[in-house]
Amino acid sequence: MPAAAIARFVLLEARRSGLPWLVAASVAAGLGLAAFLSQVAVTESVALQTAIVATLLRACAVFLVAFQVITSTQREHDDKGLELMLSLPLSRHVYYLGRLAGFAACGAAVSICFALPLLLWSPPQAVLLWALSLCAETAMVAAAAMFFSVVLVQLVPAAAATAGLYLLARSIAAIQAIAGGPLVEPSLPQRLARWSVDAVALLLPRLDAVTRSDWLIYGPPGLGHYAMAIAALAVYALVLVAAGLFDFHRRNL
Amino acid sequence: MTRDERKLSAVPGWLWAFLALALAAQVALHSTGPRLRAAPSELPPPPAPGVLRLASFGEPAAAVRLAMLYLQSFDQRAGNDIPYRDLDYGRLIGWLRAIVDTDPRSAYPLFAATRIYAENPDPRKARAMLEFIYREFLKDPNRRWRWLAHAALLAKYRLHDLPLALRYANAIDRLTTRRDVPLWARQMRIFILEDMNEIEAAKVILGGLLASGKIKDPAELRFLKRHLEELEARQAGSNGAPKGR
User: Fold this and answer.
1) Which of A17, B57, B183, B189 could form a disulfide with A170 if both were Cys (CB 3.0 to 4.6 A apart)?
2) Cα dihedral A232→A238→A240→A243 (10° resolution)
3) Contact across the interface for A213 and B61, Cβ inside 8 Å
């Protein structure tokens, strides 16, 4: 099965590019930070350690996976590996989906490694839900990074676009709340601004609703709420895959 | 992850010296420079509603705890005779309110308000902080009663304001409805009216909290134990002081 073989090579490349060392360094940094925080907090020291370490490791997972996707796609482009692969009896979508599956598997491995230290402070059920959510989040980020890498080709624009999408998706709910706050003057420009924000929100995933550190502190969310949040992420990943495949099929290579 | 490298001896001597000198200069500069300390006057205005949530990027639980550590750094110098004396309590309360609003389930801001900031020797500042605790208690009495219980003690023993202490005690009795709120908390009124000194009262409250299993965090246990020891030392120092009113 060619897609599985391509995914395996993506994983092999990740293993050889030093990603395991970066994962280990992130875990070590998280544990060091936790030890420091336990000394400075006057209360909620366990909650503080859990929240900060989970937030740090979530950001590290997303950063590592996004850069792995972008640099790998860039290398494939620069080394003419893409042309070589497409000269084989292999359709474009098999190549694209195979690589994306490899990056998603890479994200899942990173997520599991990052979830393990959280068992020190949180119950296994909450950590499991957090880890599964991080797997889905990194898969979506991989899809976004791959989409931007294919469309924008250059490393810096692709990285900037991925980071911009991610940060905006994490904060759009707060921006909407500010735009629709009770103290805001009900004028036409204000209404236009609120509609614009709502329109932008329609095009973004709700990343503020997934992989939340408060699941680890106050208990996991209801299963219905959790399943809805993950399903929304999966739908958004499908949109990115469809858009990426669309652009990839159109390109003259 | 391997690199094709030459031997260390391939690096010229001047480059070794240059690297060592640059590193030494960095360490020397950093170690002799003044240590950054947050002065009380530098506490910035509190963030507008929603801004802290925006800055949290969807992780309010982590953001509010970081914000509390940030607040804690103001005027918490070692050897400071009167901690938080110069802190602008208007701004401080604004910060605490923003933090509570961002993550209402976190115990950190109300713990700090009660156990640290409300113990300010300036009665005006202490009173402002107690009122903040009371207002926040009203929003969620079943979860926040323990801070108002301590606020009632502070009102009685530090501000010597019995009506205020009774107002807080009555509020706990009237507004808490959950069954796990202990009886002693609901009967704070009797407790406030009893003739006992501050240490006895603090011990009863602390013992009650420990027995109810409300305090589990090791840092909080450490802090409360140290706090009790400080109270005992203070009372030993002022022997012969009149008993609680």
Assistant:
1) B57
2) -140
3) yes
Quote the DSSP letter at residue B104.
T
Contact B112 A17 (CB under 8 A): no
**Would you state the pLDDT for residue A182?**
66
Q: Counting runs of H as helices and runs of E as strands, what totals does chain B give?
A: 12, 0
Residues B28 and A155: beta-carbon distance below 8 Å: no
Contact A17 B53 (CB under 8 A): no
Please tell me the distance from the alpha carbon of residue B86 to that of residue B74, in angstroms, as a whole number. Answer: 10
Quote the CA–CA distance of A8 and A13 in Å, as a whole number. 9
**What would the pLDDT profile of B190-200 be if each residue is shown by its tens digit?**
777 776 676 77
Between CA B73 and CA A58 the distance in angstroms is 26
Residues A10, B53: Cα–Cα separation, whole Å: 37
Using the Cβ of A46 and the Cβ atoms of chain B, whether some distance falls under 8 Å is answered with yes
Nearest to B53 among A16, A177, A183 (CB): A177
Question: How far does B101 lie from chain A, in Å, by closest CA?
Answer: 13
What is this structure's pTM?
Answer: 0.83
CA distance B59 to chain A (A): 6
HSE value, Cβ hemisphere, 13 Å, CA-based, for A18: 8
ipTM: 0.81
B245 pLDDT tier (thresholds 50, 70, 90) = very low
| A45-78 and A92-115 helices, crossing angle to 10° | 150
Distance (Å, whole) CA A44 – CA B228: 19
CA distance B14 to chain A (A): 32
Handedness of CA B197, B111, B97, B38 (dihedral sign): positive
